Amino acid sequence: MIKGIIFDKDGTLINFHALWDGVGARLATEFLERAGLTRDAELEAELSRSIGVLPDGVAPAGAFACGTYAECGALFARALERFGYGVTDAEAAARLCEISDETSCSKTARYEAVCDLHKLFGDLRTRGIHLGLVTGDTQAAAEYFADRLSLRGYFDFIEGADFGAWEPKPHRASADRFRALTGIRAGELAIVGDSCADMRFARNADAVAIAVLSGVGGGRELRETADFVMPNVEYIYEIIRRTDI
User: Residue 225, Cβ neighbours under 10 Å: how many?
Assistant: First the structure.
């Protein structure tokens, strides 16, 4: 019986593209401007490409879609090194976190819930299920999301992936902290997300892996790695019925 569910944020609970497509398109330009580096079209394209921000959209398996800012920072640093700039991984990651938080934690940021999250979370809590939020985004952005949509009260646990602070997903550490906080045991946890990284997180944590098709992940890849696949989180009731949550 499942007694706890950890949700991803972007692409799982909110529309990824509404919030992040515009950020991704300007991220390299903004980074160079803030770092005081010379803007160069070729360099900007290389930076964007390194994290999976492509001219025709965001790559599902790219670091921008399903990685952390530590990973993006390392990729930016390698790209900058090829162009003769010396920026450390940590410096690049910190700059990216700063840009992301200023953008996603603003009143103009577009937060479009994939369904009625208040109804969903209220029903799940009524069933006695503990809820967590674990994201590759920053802690500040995770908490801003919960407050912006008035969802904080539903969560027992909210954790971002601030670089250097702890082992982010897909490492199992976040799931272990969630279990310790709520008292649930191995086999009582489900993890819901829109990427293969979320499914690896579930596998590493010995949790039920539930994929949603509302984000950037490809259906074929998710079906190969998940225990269950659903259009969006609103369909979790069917999985609840089938797994006797």
Answer: 18
pLDDT score of 126: 95
Residues 92 and 127 in one domain: no
The CATH number linked to 154 is 3.40.50.1000
Count of the separate structural domains present in the chain: 2
Examine the fold and report which residue of 69, 104, 139 is the final residue of a domain before the chain moves on.
Answer: 104
What are the 10-residue block averages of pLDDT along the chain, 245 residues in total?
Answer: 94 94 90 90 95 90 90 96 93 93 91 97 96 94 96 96 75 94 92 95 96 89 93 91 71
In terms of Cα–Cα distance, which of 24, 59, 19, 16 is closest to 44?
A: 24
Cβ within 8 Å of residue 35, ≥6 positions away: 87, 95
| CA–CA distance, 190 with 14 (Å, rounded to integer) | 19
Packing angle, helices 139-148 and 89-104, rounded to 10: 10
- pLDDT recorded at residue 209: 96
Provide the strand spans (E) within the chain.
4-7, 53-54, 57-58, 130-134, 157-159, 189-193, 208-212, 228-230
* Residues forming beta bridges with residue 145, ordered by sequence position: none
Q: What is the pLDDT of residue 228?
A: 95
The predicted structure's pLDDT at residue 38: 85
User: Which structural domain, as residue segments, surrounds residue 117?
Assistant: 4-15+111-243
Instruction: Say what the pLDDT of residue 165 is.
Output: 58
Do 119 and 87 belong to one domain?
no
Domain termination residue (choose one: 74, 104, 134)? 104
